Amino acid sequence: MKNKTLLIIILSIIVVFIITAIVLTGVIINKAINDNHERENTINEEKEAAIEEFDNRIAYRSTNNYTYHNSTNEISYIDNTTDHNSLTLNDTAGWRATIKDLTVEGRIEIPKTQLDVAVLDKVTIEALKDAVGIVYGPGVNKVGNTIIMGNSNNENDFFFDNQKIELGDEIFLTDIETHTKIKYVVYNKYIASSTSFDYASRDTGGKREITLVSSVNDNNRLIIWAKEEQ
Protein backbone atom coordinates (compact mmCIF):
# COMPACT_ATOMS: atom_id res chain seq x y z
CA MET A 1 0.00 0.00 0.00
CA LYS A 2 2.80 2.32 0.94
CA ASN A 3 4.64 1.52 -2.29
CA LYS A 4 1.50 2.31 -4.29
CA THR A 5 1.06 5.63 -2.50
CA LEU A 6 4.74 6.49 -3.05
CA LEU A 7 4.42 5.60 -6.73
CA ILE A 8 1.37 7.87 -7.05
CA ILE A 9 3.25 10.73 -5.39
CA ILE A 10 6.26 10.27 -7.68
CA LEU A 11 4.05 10.13 -10.78
CA SER A 12 2.19 13.24 -9.63
CA ILE A 13 5.48 15.10 -9.18
CA ILE A 14 6.63 14.00 -12.64
CA VAL A 15 3.33 15.10 -14.18
CA VAL A 16 3.54 18.48 -12.42
CA PHE A 17 7.14 18.87 -13.57
CA ILE A 18 6.21 18.03 -17.18
CA ILE A 19 3.25 20.43 -17.15
CA THR A 20 5.42 23.16 -15.63
CA ALA A 21 8.11 22.59 -18.27
CA ILE A 22 5.54 22.74 -21.05
CA VAL A 23 4.02 25.95 -19.65
CA LEU A 24 7.45 27.58 -19.23
CA THR A 25 8.49 26.53 -22.73
CA GLY A 26 5.28 28.02 -24.10
CA VAL A 27 5.89 31.26 -22.21
CA ILE A 28 9.47 31.48 -23.49
CA ILE A 29 8.42 30.76 -27.08
CA ASN A 30 5.54 33.22 -26.86
CA LYS A 31 7.86 35.92 -25.45
CA ALA A 32 10.39 35.29 -28.23
CA ILE A 33 7.63 35.58 -30.84
CA ASN A 34 6.31 38.78 -29.27
CA ASP A 35 9.82 40.26 -29.04
CA ASN A 36 10.41 39.42 -32.69
CA HIS A 37 7.09 41.02 -33.66
CA GLU A 38 8.00 44.11 -31.67
CA ARG A 39 11.36 44.35 -33.43
CA GLU A 40 9.67 43.90 -36.82
CA ASN A 41 7.06 46.52 -35.93
CA THR A 42 9.79 48.94 -34.85
CA ILE A 43 11.71 48.38 -38.08
CA ASN A 44 8.53 48.76 -40.13
CA GLU A 45 7.63 51.95 -38.29
CA GLU A 46 11.12 53.33 -38.94
CA LYS A 47 10.84 52.39 -42.60
CA GLU A 48 7.38 53.94 -42.92
CA ALA A 49 8.57 57.10 -41.17
CA ALA A 50 11.59 57.32 -43.45
CA ILE A 51 9.43 56.80 -46.54
CA GLU A 52 6.99 59.44 -45.36
CA GLU A 53 9.84 61.85 -44.67
CA PHE A 54 11.31 61.16 -48.09
CA ASP A 55 7.97 61.63 -49.82
CA ASN A 56 7.52 64.91 -48.00
CA ARG A 57 10.94 66.04 -49.14
CA ILE A 58 10.64 65.16 -52.80
CA ALA A 59 7.10 66.53 -52.99
CA TYR A 60 8.65 69.94 -52.44
CA ARG A 61 9.12 71.90 -55.66
CA SER A 62 11.41 74.84 -55.23
CA THR A 63 10.17 78.16 -56.59
CA ASN A 64 13.32 80.01 -55.58
CA ASN A 65 16.25 80.61 -57.90
CA TYR A 66 18.86 79.65 -55.34
CA THR A 67 22.51 79.21 -56.24
CA TYR A 68 23.96 75.76 -56.78
CA HIS A 69 26.41 75.40 -53.92
CA ASN A 70 29.27 73.34 -55.30
CA SER A 71 31.37 73.99 -52.21
CA THR A 72 30.94 73.52 -48.49
CA ASN A 73 31.55 77.12 -47.45
CA GLU A 74 27.87 77.49 -46.58
CA ILE A 75 28.65 75.62 -43.36
CA SER A 76 28.51 77.58 -40.11
CA TYR A 77 30.68 76.75 -37.11
CA ILE A 78 29.74 76.87 -33.46
CA ASP A 79 32.63 78.23 -31.39
CA ASN A 80 32.93 81.43 -29.42
CA THR A 81 36.68 81.87 -29.48
CA THR A 82 37.71 81.65 -33.10
CA ASP A 83 36.49 83.12 -36.34
CA HIS A 84 35.76 80.18 -38.63
CA ASN A 85 34.06 82.05 -41.45
CA SER A 86 36.86 81.20 -43.87
CA LEU A 87 37.14 77.51 -42.98
CA THR A 88 36.28 74.79 -45.47
CA LEU A 89 35.04 71.32 -44.61
CA ASN A 90 38.61 70.02 -44.65
CA ASP A 91 39.48 72.33 -41.74
CA THR A 92 36.65 71.37 -39.40
CA ALA A 93 38.07 68.51 -37.32
CA GLY A 94 37.09 69.04 -33.71
CA TRP A 95 34.45 71.66 -34.52
CA ARG A 96 30.72 71.25 -34.69
CA ALA A 97 29.52 72.28 -38.14
CA THR A 98 25.89 72.93 -38.98
CA ILE A 99 23.70 73.84 -41.92
CA LYS A 100 20.19 75.12 -41.17
CA ASP A 101 20.65 73.87 -37.58
CA LEU A 102 21.44 70.33 -38.74
CA THR A 103 24.79 68.73 -37.95
CA VAL A 104 27.24 68.12 -40.78
CA GLU A 105 28.55 64.55 -40.66
CA GLY A 106 30.88 64.86 -43.62
CA ARG A 107 31.06 65.41 -47.33
CA ILE A 108 30.22 63.45 -50.45
CA GLU A 109 32.13 63.72 -53.71
CA ILE A 110 30.94 62.17 -56.96
CA PRO A 111 33.48 62.80 -59.75
CA LYS A 112 31.03 61.64 -62.44
CA THR A 113 28.58 64.44 -61.64
CA GLN A 114 31.20 66.88 -60.28
CA LEU A 115 29.39 66.96 -56.95
CA ASP A 116 31.12 68.06 -53.76
CA VAL A 117 28.72 68.87 -50.94
CA ALA A 118 28.13 68.43 -47.21
CA VAL A 119 26.23 65.44 -45.80
CA LEU A 120 23.85 66.24 -42.94
CA ASP A 121 22.85 63.87 -40.15
CA LYS A 122 19.17 64.46 -41.06
CA VAL A 123 17.11 66.12 -43.76
CA THR A 124 14.70 69.02 -43.92
CA ILE A 125 13.20 70.77 -46.91
CA GLU A 126 15.22 73.90 -46.30
CA ALA A 127 18.50 72.11 -45.56
CA LEU A 128 18.27 70.09 -48.78
CA LYS A 129 18.72 73.34 -50.67
CA ASP A 130 22.27 73.50 -49.35
CA ALA A 131 23.27 69.89 -48.80
CA VAL A 132 22.21 66.24 -48.92
CA GLY A 133 21.24 64.28 -45.82
CA ILE A 134 21.07 60.89 -44.16
CA VAL A 135 17.55 59.54 -44.00
CA TYR A 136 18.36 56.10 -42.56
CA GLY A 137 21.37 54.08 -41.41
CA PRO A 138 24.45 54.25 -39.17
CA GLY A 139 26.12 57.38 -40.58
CA VAL A 140 29.03 58.53 -42.72
CA ASN A 141 31.63 55.77 -43.18
CA LYS A 142 30.03 53.60 -40.52
CA VAL A 143 29.67 49.84 -40.99
CA GLY A 144 26.31 48.99 -42.54
CA ASN A 145 24.09 50.64 -45.13
CA THR A 146 23.71 54.41 -44.91
CA ILE A 147 20.99 55.96 -47.05
CA ILE A 148 21.75 59.44 -48.35
CA MET A 149 18.94 61.46 -49.88
CA GLY A 150 19.11 64.48 -52.10
CA ASN A 151 16.72 66.56 -54.16
CA SER A 152 16.64 65.90 -57.90
CA ASN A 153 13.66 67.82 -59.21
CA ASN A 154 15.54 70.50 -61.13
CA GLU A 155 19.05 71.14 -62.42
CA ASN A 156 20.02 73.04 -59.28
CA ASP A 157 19.41 70.03 -57.05
CA PHE A 158 22.44 68.07 -55.89
CA PHE A 159 21.24 64.64 -57.03
CA PHE A 160 19.76 65.92 -60.30
CA ASP A 161 22.56 64.26 -62.31
CA ASN A 162 22.45 60.93 -60.47
CA GLN A 163 20.93 59.32 -63.56
CA LYS A 164 24.36 59.77 -65.18
CA ILE A 165 26.02 57.57 -62.58
CA GLU A 166 26.95 54.13 -63.92
CA LEU A 167 28.11 50.84 -62.43
CA GLY A 168 31.78 51.07 -61.50
CA ASP A 169 31.69 54.82 -60.86
CA GLU A 170 33.34 56.11 -57.70
CA ILE A 171 31.80 57.96 -54.77
CA PHE A 172 33.89 59.38 -51.94
CA LEU A 173 32.70 60.01 -48.39
CA THR A 174 34.73 61.94 -45.82
CA ASP A 175 34.01 61.90 -42.09
CA ILE A 176 34.11 65.47 -40.78
CA GLU A 177 35.49 64.42 -37.39
CA THR A 178 38.34 62.16 -38.45
CA HIS A 179 38.81 63.34 -42.06
CA THR A 180 38.78 59.68 -43.07
CA LYS A 181 38.03 59.51 -46.78
CA ILE A 182 36.65 56.26 -48.14
CA LYS A 183 36.05 55.30 -51.74
CA TYR A 184 32.81 53.52 -52.63
CA VAL A 185 32.17 51.82 -55.97
CA VAL A 186 28.71 51.69 -57.53
CA TYR A 187 27.49 48.14 -58.11
CA ASN A 188 23.73 48.45 -58.50
CA LYS A 189 21.33 50.99 -59.97
CA TYR A 190 17.59 50.65 -60.47
CA ILE A 191 14.19 52.30 -60.24
CA ALA A 192 12.02 51.47 -57.23
CA SER A 193 8.47 52.39 -56.39
CA SER A 194 7.86 55.04 -53.75
CA THR A 195 6.45 52.35 -51.44
CA SER A 196 9.57 50.18 -51.59
CA PHE A 197 12.16 50.40 -48.83
CA ASP A 198 13.81 46.99 -49.10
CA TYR A 199 17.17 48.56 -49.94
CA ALA A 200 17.33 50.10 -46.45
CA SER A 201 17.68 46.94 -44.40
CA ARG A 202 19.88 44.85 -46.69
CA ASP A 203 22.69 42.82 -45.11
CA THR A 204 26.08 44.32 -45.95
CA GLY A 205 28.03 41.46 -44.39
CA GLY A 206 29.79 43.76 -41.95
CA LYS A 207 30.98 46.09 -44.72
CA ARG A 208 30.43 49.78 -45.37
CA GLU A 209 27.83 50.55 -48.00
CA ILE A 210 25.81 53.56 -49.06
CA THR A 211 22.56 54.03 -50.93
CA LEU A 212 21.80 57.21 -52.85
CA VAL A 213 18.10 57.95 -53.21
CA SER A 214 16.53 60.57 -55.44
CA SER A 215 13.19 61.01 -57.13
CA VAL A 216 12.31 60.10 -60.69
CA ASN A 217 8.71 61.23 -60.30
CA ASP A 218 6.06 61.17 -57.60
CA ASN A 219 5.79 57.37 -57.78
CA ASN A 220 9.35 56.21 -58.43
CA ARG A 221 12.82 56.57 -56.97
CA LEU A 222 16.29 56.20 -58.44
CA ILE A 223 18.28 53.88 -56.17
CA ILE A 224 22.07 53.59 -56.36
CA TRP A 225 24.07 51.11 -54.30
CA ALA A 226 27.80 51.50 -53.67
CA LYS A 227 30.18 49.51 -51.49
CA GLU A 228 33.53 50.31 -49.97
CA GLU A 229 36.45 49.50 -52.22
CA GLN A 230 38.51 46.80 -50.55
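[next item in queue]
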Amino acid sequence: MSKPQDATNVLTLSPVIPVVTIDNAADAAPLARVLLASGIPTIEITLRTPAALDAIKAIASEAPEMVVGAGTVLTEKDLSAAIDAGARYALSPGGTPKLMKAARKASIPFVPGVATASEIMRGLDLGYTCFKFFPAEQLGGATAIKSLGAPLAAARFCPTGSITPEKAPAYLALKNVLCVGGSWIAPAEYIKAGDWASIEAAAKRAVALR
Protein backbone atom coordinates (compact mmCIF):
# COMPACT_ATOMS: atom_id res chain seq x y z
CA MET A 1 0.00 0.00 0.00
CA SER A 2 2.72 2.43 -1.00
CA LYS A 3 1.05 4.37 -3.78
CA PRO A 4 -2.19 6.37 -4.10
CA GLN A 5 -3.67 4.01 -6.68
CA ASP A 6 -3.34 1.20 -4.15
CA ALA A 7 -6.22 2.74 -2.21
CA THR A 8 -8.28 -0.09 -3.72
CA ASN A 9 -6.62 -2.42 -1.23
CA VAL A 10 -7.91 -0.58 1.82
CA LEU A 11 -11.28 0.37 0.36
CA THR A 12 -12.14 -3.27 -0.20
CA LEU A 13 -11.31 -4.44 3.32
CA SER A 14 -14.89 -3.91 4.51
CA PRO A 15 -18.22 -2.97 2.87
CA VAL A 16 -18.46 -0.16 5.42
CA ILE A 17 -15.58 1.91 6.80
CA PRO A 18 -16.58 3.26 10.22
CA VAL A 19 -16.08 7.04 10.17
CA VAL A 20 -15.25 7.98 13.74
CA THR A 21 -14.72 11.20 15.67
CA ILE A 22 -12.88 10.54 18.93
CA ASP A 23 -12.76 12.96 21.85
CA ASN A 24 -10.69 10.77 24.17
CA ALA A 25 -7.72 8.89 22.75
CA ALA A 26 -8.06 6.29 25.53
CA ASP A 27 -11.21 5.03 23.79
CA ALA A 28 -9.44 4.36 20.49
CA ALA A 29 -7.80 0.97 21.09
CA PRO A 30 -10.85 -0.57 22.84
CA LEU A 31 -13.01 0.60 19.93
CA ALA A 32 -10.59 -0.88 17.40
CA ARG A 33 -10.62 -4.22 19.20
CA VAL A 34 -14.43 -4.33 19.23
CA LEU A 35 -14.55 -3.61 15.50
CA LEU A 36 -11.92 -6.23 14.74
CA ALA A 37 -13.83 -8.83 16.75
CA SER A 38 -16.96 -7.91 14.79
CA GLY A 39 -15.29 -8.48 11.42
CA ILE A 40 -14.35 -4.91 10.46
CA PRO A 41 -10.57 -4.56 9.96
CA THR A 42 -10.41 -0.86 9.11
CA ILE A 43 -11.44 2.46 10.65
CA GLU A 44 -11.28 6.13 9.63
CA ILE A 45 -10.38 8.50 12.45
CA THR A 46 -11.36 12.03 11.44
CA LEU A 47 -8.89 14.80 12.23
CA ARG A 48 -11.63 16.90 13.79
CA THR A 49 -10.62 16.76 17.45
CA PRO A 50 -7.41 17.40 19.41
CA ALA A 51 -7.38 13.70 20.32
CA ALA A 52 -7.45 12.40 16.75
CA LEU A 53 -3.71 11.95 16.14
CA ASP A 54 -3.21 10.34 19.55
CA ALA A 55 -6.14 8.03 18.79
CA ILE A 56 -4.44 6.95 15.54
CA LYS A 57 -1.18 6.37 17.46
CA ALA A 58 -3.00 4.28 20.06
CA ILE A 59 -4.64 2.07 17.46
CA ALA A 60 -1.42 1.65 15.50
CA SER A 61 0.48 0.53 18.61
CA GLU A 62 -2.19 -1.31 20.65
CA ALA A 63 -4.32 -2.85 17.89
CA PRO A 64 -1.87 -3.20 14.99
CA GLU A 65 -4.13 -5.60 13.08
CA MET A 66 -6.53 -2.69 12.54
CA VAL A 67 -5.85 -0.80 9.32
CA VAL A 68 -6.31 2.72 10.62
CA GLY A 69 -6.94 5.62 8.25
CA ALA A 70 -7.02 9.36 8.81
CA GLY A 71 -10.00 11.36 7.59
CA THR A 72 -10.55 15.10 7.16
CA VAL A 73 -7.00 15.49 5.81
CA LEU A 74 -7.07 19.02 4.42
CA THR A 75 -3.41 19.98 4.02
CA GLU A 76 0.05 18.54 3.44
CA LYS A 77 0.71 19.16 7.15
CA ASP A 78 -2.33 17.06 8.07
CA LEU A 79 -1.12 14.27 5.79
CA SER A 80 2.38 14.28 7.27
CA ALA A 81 1.02 14.30 10.82
CA ALA A 82 -1.31 11.40 10.02
CA ILE A 83 1.55 9.35 8.55
CA ASP A 84 3.75 10.11 11.56
CA ALA A 85 0.95 8.97 13.87
CA GLY A 86 0.71 5.62 12.10
CA ALA A 87 -2.15 6.08 9.65
CA ARG A 88 -2.03 3.55 6.83
CA TYR A 89 -4.21 5.56 4.45
CA ALA A 90 -5.79 9.00 4.32
CA LEU A 91 -8.97 10.56 3.00
CA SER A 92 -10.13 14.12 2.40
CA PRO A 93 -13.56 15.67 1.89
CA GLY A 94 -12.06 17.40 -1.15
CA GLY A 95 -8.77 17.65 -3.00
CA THR A 96 -6.74 20.72 -3.84
CA PRO A 97 -4.17 20.31 -6.63
CA LYS A 98 -1.40 21.03 -4.09
CA LEU A 99 -2.58 18.34 -1.69
CA MET A 100 -3.22 15.76 -4.38
CA LYS A 101 0.20 16.27 -5.95
CA ALA A 102 1.90 16.01 -2.56
CA ALA A 103 -0.04 12.88 -1.68
CA ARG A 104 1.16 11.21 -4.89
CA LYS A 105 4.61 11.14 -3.25
CA ALA A 106 3.37 9.98 0.15
CA SER A 107 4.08 6.57 1.63
CA ILE A 108 0.39 5.72 2.13
CA PRO A 109 -2.65 5.70 -0.19
CA PHE A 110 -4.68 8.92 -0.35
CA VAL A 111 -8.34 9.17 -1.31
CA PRO A 112 -9.37 12.68 -2.40
CA GLY A 113 -12.95 13.84 -2.07
CA VAL A 114 -15.02 14.76 -5.11
CA ALA A 115 -18.47 16.15 -5.78
CA THR A 116 -18.48 16.76 -9.55
CA ALA A 117 -17.40 15.18 -12.83
CA SER A 118 -14.75 17.87 -13.28
CA GLU A 119 -13.19 17.08 -9.90
CA ILE A 120 -13.12 13.37 -10.76
CA MET A 121 -11.46 14.16 -14.12
CA ARG A 122 -8.80 16.28 -12.41
CA GLY A 123 -8.10 13.43 -10.00
CA LEU A 124 -7.86 10.91 -12.83
CA ASP A 125 -5.40 13.23 -14.60
CA LEU A 126 -3.19 13.15 -11.50
CA GLY A 127 -3.24 9.37 -11.38
CA TYR A 128 -5.98 8.74 -8.85
CA THR A 129 -8.69 6.17 -9.45
CA CYS A 130 -10.32 6.00 -5.99
CA PHE A 131 -12.37 8.89 -4.67
CA LYS A 132 -14.46 9.80 -1.66
CA PHE A 133 -17.85 10.96 -2.97
CA PHE A 134 -18.87 13.51 -0.35
CA PRO A 135 -21.43 14.47 0.89
CA ALA A 136 -23.03 11.49 -0.83
CA GLU A 137 -26.70 11.78 0.02
CA GLN A 138 -26.76 15.54 -0.50
CA LEU A 139 -25.14 15.12 -3.93
CA GLY A 140 -27.79 12.75 -5.22
CA GLY A 141 -26.88 9.46 -3.59
CA ALA A 142 -26.48 6.16 -5.41
CA THR A 143 -28.30 7.49 -8.47
CA ALA A 144 -25.67 10.21 -8.93
CA ILE A 145 -22.77 7.75 -8.63
CA LYS A 146 -24.37 5.40 -11.12
CA SER A 147 -24.74 8.29 -13.58
CA LEU A 148 -21.12 9.39 -13.12
CA GLY A 149 -19.94 5.84 -13.72
CA ALA A 150 -21.03 5.81 -17.34
CA PRO A 151 -18.69 8.55 -18.68
CA LEU A 152 -16.03 8.09 -15.97
CA ALA A 153 -15.63 4.32 -15.98
CA ALA A 154 -12.14 4.32 -14.44
CA ALA A 155 -13.28 5.96 -11.19
CA ARG A 156 -14.12 3.99 -8.06
CA PHE A 157 -15.86 5.48 -5.03
CA CYS A 158 -16.22 5.41 -1.29
CA PRO A 159 -19.45 7.40 -0.83
CA THR A 160 -19.69 9.08 2.57
CA GLY A 161 -22.19 11.47 4.12
CA SER A 162 -25.61 10.82 5.68
CA ILE A 163 -25.57 7.18 4.54
CA THR A 164 -27.63 4.89 6.78
CA PRO A 165 -27.76 1.08 7.05
CA GLU A 166 -30.97 1.24 5.02
CA LYS A 167 -29.40 3.31 2.23
CA ALA A 168 -26.04 1.53 2.09
CA PRO A 169 -27.14 -1.50 0.00
CA ALA A 170 -28.13 0.69 -2.96
CA TYR A 171 -24.58 2.09 -3.06
CA LEU A 172 -22.87 -1.26 -2.53
CA ALA A 173 -24.81 -2.77 -5.43
CA LEU A 174 -23.01 -0.43 -7.86
CA LYS A 175 -19.95 -1.72 -9.72
CA ASN A 176 -18.05 1.53 -9.19
CA VAL A 177 -18.56 1.58 -5.41
CA LEU A 178 -15.88 -0.20 -3.36
CA CYS A 179 -17.33 0.57 0.07
CA VAL A 180 -19.25 3.26 1.94
CA GLY A 181 -18.23 5.42 4.86
CA GLY A 182 -20.57 5.10 7.81
CA SER A 183 -20.72 7.16 10.99
CA TRP A 184 -23.64 5.13 12.32
CA ILE A 185 -21.47 2.19 13.45
CA ALA A 186 -19.61 4.02 16.20
CA PRO A 187 -21.22 7.39 16.90
CA ALA A 188 -19.56 9.64 19.47
CA GLU A 189 -22.28 9.09 22.06
CA TYR A 190 -21.76 5.31 21.98
CA ILE A 191 -18.01 5.73 22.35
CA LYS A 192 -18.31 8.19 25.25
CA ALA A 193 -20.74 5.85 27.03
CA GLY A 194 -18.53 2.82 26.43
CA ASP A 195 -21.48 1.16 24.76
CA TRP A 196 -19.37 -1.45 23.01
CA ALA A 197 -22.31 -3.85 22.69
CA SER A 198 -24.25 -1.46 20.45
CA ILE A 199 -21.14 -0.77 18.37
CA GLU A 200 -20.50 -4.50 18.01
CA ALA A 201 -24.07 -5.12 16.88
CA ALA A 202 -23.94 -2.28 14.34
CA ALA A 203 -20.59 -3.49 13.04
CA LYS A 204 -21.80 -7.04 12.55
CA ARG A 205 -24.84 -5.77 10.62
CA ALA A 206 -22.54 -3.66 8.45
CA VAL A 207 -20.31 -6.64 7.61
CA ALA A 208 -23.40 -8.50 6.41
CA LEU A 209 -24.37 -5.74 3.96
CA ARG A 210 -22.11 -6.92 1.12
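[queue empty]
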